[in-house]
Amino acid sequence: MEDEEKSREYITVGELSVGFSENMLQPVGGLAGKVIELYHESGKKSRIAFLDAEALKWETEQSSGTEKFICSYQAVIPREHMYFIDFIASFGDSKSVSIIIDMRRRFATVVTGILPTPEEMKIPLIIRAERAMPLTAVQVIFEHASLDSPFSEATPRHQKTRDLVGKRAQWVYSSKDAYEHIYLNENTYTWHCIAGKEKGLADTDRCFYYKLGENFYLFVWIEKIIPTLGVILEDLDVMRSYGKIFGYEGCAVNGRIANFAVGSYATMLNTTEYDFSHLLR
Fold first, then answer.
1. Burial readout 9-40 (b: 16 or more C-beta within 10 A, e: otherwise)
2. Which CATH number does the domain housing residue 126 bear?
3. Which secondary structure element, helix H or strand E, spans residue 120, and what is its range?
4. How far apart are CA 45 and CA 47, in angstroms?
5. Cα 181 from Cα 100, distance rounded (Å)
6. Dihedral through CA 159, CA 162, CA 164, CA 167, nearest 10?
7. What pTM does this model have?
8. What pLDDT digit, counting tens, does each position of 140-190 carry?
9. Is pLDDT above 80 for 279?
10. What is the dihedral of CA 143, 144, 150, 155, to 10 degrees?
């Protein structure tokens, strides 16, 4: 019994990262030497200069001041004319930035994840529930932006969607790691490890869905037990996913950061639909 209980303990993001990127999409270097300007809907402006295939320079101008840093990045092309760019905002910092850019239509969605401080992590779930706080201490911010011209009413956006709600899918991340996702509603999903380091573990967490194209979705989740952010692009045309997982490498909050690329192969298991017509009579 003791061994069984031990096998069901939650593991850190650093432990999860080992071997988990087996099915990732290989990074591309096509942005090297290019400069992209993002005009955010909020009014701030960001300039990204891709110094080479691995490093970029980020500058953001807003009312509160200017932010500048140089960092490493990864970029992949999940579909034609689309880039997924991911990086840590600065060395050792607890903020990550993921950008989905539609090069053809010249707009982007920026996903910023912020890991909790030690003080935020010490607030018990029961207190969070009593105070109507989010159950997870991980923060995520979504921003819409246009490329190289000011944001306007005509600027396209990736829209929130319910397309995945009710679906149950299996995602195989490596030769050893597989999970199923049950997309319960527009705010919540359940994950269940069916093979790998977390086999037997399951939980229900906050999530977000955006439609990027036909059968192509941005799926983001934030976990409440181990502070974790997942930013994943799910392409149901080819039954693949691409993206990243972000969190503290070990158990020590404000310790080293783990931010690693992932990819998976998908199998759609079933779809649940509810019929309430008899309740409306």
1. eeebbbbbbeebbebbbebeeebeeeebbbbb
2. 2.40.128.20
3. helix 118-121
4. 7
5. 22
6. 180
7. 0.93
8. 999 999 999 999 999 999 999 999 999 999 999 999 999 999 999 999 999
9. no
10. -170
CA distance 219 to 72: 24
Q: How far apart are the first and last CA of the chain?
A: 51
The C-alpha atoms of residue 84 and residue 241 are separated, in whole angstroms, by 12
> How many independent structural domains does the chain possess?
1
**Is the Cβ–Cβ distance between 232 and 242 less than 8 Å?**
yes
- The CA distance from 233 to 140, in Å, is 16
In the block, tokens 């060395």 appear at: 91
Domain that holds residue 166: 2-280
Joined tokens for residue 75: 């970029």
Structure token digits, residue 97: 């930035």
Contact at 8 Å (CB) between 75 and 87? Answer: no
- More confident call, 124 vs 280: 124
Whether 112 and 158 have beta carbons less than 8 Å apart is answered as no
Spatial separation of the C-alpha atoms in residues 115 and 137, rounded to whole Å:
7
- Residue 144 has which token pair? 């819409």
Residue 20 is which amino acid?
A: F
Q: Which two tokens stand for residue 217?
A: 């979705």
Q: Cα(180)–Cα(257) distance, rounded to whole angstroms?
A: 26
Closest CA to 251 of 10, 1, 2: 10
CA distance 26 to 134: 35
- Assigned token pair, 101: 């850019």
Tokens coding 43: 């009014």
